[in-house]
Amino acid sequence: MSYSIAEAARRSGLSIDTLRYYERIKLLDPPARDTAGRRAYSDADLAWLEFLTKLRTTGMPIKMMREYAQLRAAGDASAGRRRAILLEQRRSVAERIAELQACMDVLNYKIENYDRICARVPGAVSVVREEISA
Predict the structure, then answer these.
(1) pTM more than 0.90
(2) Cα separations (Å) of 100 from 55, 86, 104, 108?
(3) Which of 19, 30, 41, 60 would be 3's cystine partner, CB 3.0–4.6 Å?
(4) How confident is the model at residue 134 (pLDDT cuts 50, 70, 90)?
(5) 61 three-class SS
(6) What are the structural domain ranges in the chain?
(7) What's the CATH class of domain 2-96?
(8) pLDDT of 49-60, one tens digit each?
(9) Distances in whole angstroms, Cα of residue 24 to Cα of each of 10, 17, 62, 118
C-alpha cells in the first residue's frame, strides 16, 4: 500500500513537518515517489515511524535514534550494537517508571490522608475521585 505524506502523517500521528525533518536528518529513508514526484510512504515506512515514535516516547535522544537508524541500515552485522542501545534505553525507562511509581505512592498517601480527614471532619466535602490502577 502507498500513502501520501498527509496520510502518512495522519496514520503515524506525526506532523508533515516532522516527517520531512526525520527524512532530512536521516532517521527515515527517503520514501518512494509517485509518478507526480510526491512522496509515497509504504507500510514498512509507517512501521518504522511507529517504532521511532516509541523510541521518542521513551525519551531517547534524537542523536541516539540517528545512530540506531544508521546501524539498522547496516543490517544484521550491527545487531549487537542496536541491542545494546535498546538495553540502555530500557534501563533508563525502568528508572523513570520507578521514579514515577514513587511519585504515585506519595500522591496516593496524600489522597488517602485527605480522605481520612474528610471522613472525620463534619461538613468536610470529599470529592469523588476516579481510581487509577497502578
Answers:
(1) no
(2) 19, 21, 6, 12
(3) 41
(4) low
(5) coil
(6) 2-96
(7) mainly alpha
(8) 999 999 999 999
(9) 19, 10, 13, 57
